[in-house]
Amino acid sequence: MSTDPARRVAALVEQLNEHNYRYYVLAQPSISDQQYDALLAELAQLEDAHPELRRPDSPTQRVGGKATGDFATVRHATPMLSLENSYSQDAIQAFDARVRRALPGEEVRYVAELKLDGVALSLLYQDSHLMRAVTRGDGIQGDDITANARAIGAIPLRLRQPSIDCEVRGEVYLLRQDFAALNRQRESDGESLFANPRNATAGSLKLQDPRLVAARRLRLAAYWLRTDRVRATRHWDHLRILRDWGLPTNPEARCCPDLEAVWAYFREFGQRRDELPYEIDGVVIKVDDLDQQRRLGFTAKSPRFAMAYKFQARQANTRLLDIQVQVGRTGAVTPVAVLEPVPLGGSTISRATLHNEDEIRRKDIRIGDTVVLEKGGDVIPKIVAFVPAARPADARPFAFPEDCPACAAPLVRDPDEAVERCENPACPAQLKRRLEHYASRQAMNIEGLGPAVAEQLVHHALVRDVGDLYSLSPDELRGLERLAEKSADKLIKAIGSSTARSFDRVLFALGIRHVGTTVARTLAAKMGSMERLRQATPEELAALPDIGPKIAGAIQDFLAAPDTSNLLEKLAAAGVQLRSGVGDDAMDSARDGDTSPRPQAEASYFAGKTVVLTGTLAGITRDEAAARIRALGGTVTGSVSARTDVVVAGDKAGSKLDRARELDVEVIGTEQFRAHLQAAGMDPETG
Ligand code: IVH
Q1: What's the CA gap between 201 and 208, in Å, rounded?
Q2: Which atom of ligand 1 is nearest to the CA of 253?
Q3: Ligand 1 contact, 171 CB (< 6 A)
Q4: Any idea what the CATH number is for the domain that residue 329 is in?
């Protein structure tokens, strides 16, 4: 290993880029994610210690950390057209005939590709560096989302071939598994779910914070190249060149000598569609020869040399047995279709959401109808229509209840959304959902308190709010169905140990509307305590990162609700953490699957280490920094020796830094220092 930092930095950048290429382009990673992260951390550390070695295309520079703000509008060099769609073999035959008529006597070959169901993106590279990324927009001009594109690991910041100027277009998309994980996360955060991977992708590209984009694990499949740098004659060559330059392409593209081969491709992927790790909605057929493409040209809307051949939507008919209404944690009441189970697109469907009353009325769907179910990339299949010929005489229109089905309180229509809401805070259905949420893994993580137990606690009126959990007696629990003595004791213990959860988790667990894990963390960090939070003005809250007037309003509503004081008193009396800096595990560790309680002193990077501070640390005084390190279990000393574990080097660090290098002591910069504090819940900005 080179000890010259400049060489080591260069070697690390090269290695990391190579691993990225193997992962995204070749789909043959040769190291684990963990090993990759370790190399990245080493690079970050070196760059921190030698800022002059940090280059804009370093893999550490994918997220600038700054919010993006509004996106600038940029004109495309050549319009980003869409493809003409077809749904029948006839239409493709007609397309082929048109092509051949325009190219009399010439041989025509096609390239067939999968039509990925994502979002088109244009990437501009100059001197092999990513300069700009623009969405399709209206085809003429789109949004400049360069900062977000840089955060996407699949998009190379620098091409593998030097001195290239080019424009690349491709589809940004999400793997099904990453989409599912994203929605799971959103569900437990109390955020609305994305209907399908395409919506999730589009939403992700428009996020205001590149760090959030990075976490979404977006993919790229490049399918178009414009450059003067190579003289290719075939689209097929372009796909290979894109790969060679480090841009991922979809591996299923196929060269088709004739229409027969195109049909075979279409049939094959029609069948394999559900097995693919991503959503496709058809195939794309392109004339392979680039000169032929040029001569065929464009209509006003689309190229004449390419055509999309779309799959029929997957549909099934089944009977609508009933429409039930569900009451959510925040009181939203939604209608759900109960269906005769029917297989569709790889799973058996027995329920489908009907969204709201308006939708049922608009589609005139009645109980007893035979309905048409359709599954796009959507998680939950849609009911598109009913079959008029199959409507039985006794089909019954659905009457949306005027009162809550669980507590009979009158429902109130939410003016912002087309949603009916039960506003009774004591509604048993809501209470049950609130208990489930409070006990969930990312919240208070109370093992043994699932839907069945929550239901019973509410049914037997043992709790009126989550605060009552802490005064449950073993005797009361033992009386519950299906709760043996042993598990009753266990549950009491689990409830008791939840008082050690950190304040951010408590805030999340309370189930305040729009307060997911991120907002909860911000509130805990910036406010520091429930007491302080209750004094905050709406303006003060709305000025915090991630929090706008809507969330601020929801927080104030919660705090002002008549029962909140009582609830908070119960929690305080039980010893639940209502201030920051105490409590055992922050939410991140639970997210990684580690739910064991960890005392903070053990968890922190500084625990047990001897630390020396040198230079000016941005945003924090030396004394404050030392106090925080001590609070996290570290020892701070004044001079560097062989016993020093870490030197924190700020600006204008002098001889101590030199001495650390001599003794090969670990050196971290201000950014890393702050990251370690932040990880331990002690960010200097907020502490
Ligand atoms: S070629 C001029 N190839 O489908 C060529 N498009 O309506 C234009 N798409 O907006 C596109 N997979 O986002 C092409 N293999 C593929 C594609 C693909 C998905 C999308 C693309 C475009 C839309 C066409």
Answers
A1: 14
A2: 15
A3: yes
A4: 2.40.50.140
Pocket test for ligand 1, best of 116, 252, 296, 304 (most atoms within 8 A of CB): 116
CATH code at position 52: 1.10.287.610
Looking at the structure, tell me whether residues 520 and 640 fall in a common domain.
Answer: no
Both 281 and 265 in one domain: the answer is yes
Which residues does the annotation mark as catalytic? Answer: 115
The secondary structure element, H or E, covering residue 46 is helix 33-49
HSE-CB at 134 with a 13 A cutoff on CA atoms is 24
**Which residues span the domain enclosing 547?**
428-574
The residue whose CA is least distant from atom 17 of ligand 1 is 115
Ligand 1 contact, 284 CB (< 6 A): yes
CA of 303, closest atom in ligand 1: 2
Side-chain-side CA neighbours of 95 within 13 Å: the count stands at 26
Is ligand 1 within 6 A of the CB of residue 82? yes
Say whether both 532 and 472 belong to one domain: yes
Residue 82 has pLDDT above 80, yes or no: yes
User: Measured in angstroms, how far is the CA atom of residue 255 from the centroid of ligand 1?
Assistant: 17
The per-residue b/e assignment along 98-126, b for 16 or more CB within 10 angstroms, e otherwise, is ebeebbeeeebbbbbbbbbbbbbbbbbbe
Let me know whether 372 and 321 are in one domain.
Answer: yes
Same domain, 457 and 524: yes
Which ligand 1 atom is the nearest neighbour of the CA of 120?
A: 13
Distance, CA 224 to ligand 1 centroid (Å)?
9
What mean pLDDT do residues 416-436 have?
89
Domain assignment present for residue 296? The answer is yes
CATH of the domain at 566: 1.10.150.20
Distances from the Cα of 604 to the Cα of 29, 34, 630, 677, 681, angstroms: 31, 19, 11, 8, 10
Closest residue by CA, ligand 1 atom 21: 120
Residue from 171, 254, 302 to probe ligand 1 pocket by mutation (most atoms less than 8 Å from CB): 171
Does residue 668's CB lie within 6 angstroms of at least one atom of ligand 1?
Answer: no
Please report the pLDDT score of residue 599 as a whole number. Answer: 33
User: Is residue 594's pLDDT more than 80?
Assistant: no
pLDDT of 286 higher than 90: yes
How far is ligand 1, taken at its centre, from the CA of residue 82, in Å? Answer: 7
310 pocket-lining for ligand 1 (C-beta < 6 Å) = no
Q: Does the residue 485 lie in any domain? A: yes
Mean pLDDT of 613-634: 81
Residue finishing a domain among 352, 380, 397: 397
DSSP 578: -
Tally of domains within the chain = 5
**Which residue has its alpha carbon closest to ligand 1 atom 8?**
82
Report whether pLDDT(661) > 90: no
pLDDT 10s digits, 346-379: 778 899 888 888 889 999 999 999 999 998 767 7
CA dist list (Å): 609 to 164, 292, 660, 687: 48, 68, 15, 21
Same domain for 256 and 321? no
Q: Is residue 407 part of a domain?
A: no
322 and 306 assigned to the same domain: no
Residue range 201-207: mean pLDDT, rounded = 94
- Listed residues 18, 33, 61: the one ending a domain: 61
Structure pTM? 0.66
pLDDT tier for residue 172 given thresholds of 50, 70 and 90: very high
CA geometry: angle 336, 340, 342, nearest 5 deg: 105
Q: How far is CA 216 from the centre of its chain?
A: 4
Same domain for 78 and 203, yes or no, is: yes
Q: What values do phi and psi take at 220, rounded to 5?
A: -135, 140
Tell me which of 643 and 175 has the higher pLDDT: 175
In a domain, 456, yes or no: yes
Residue type, 389: A
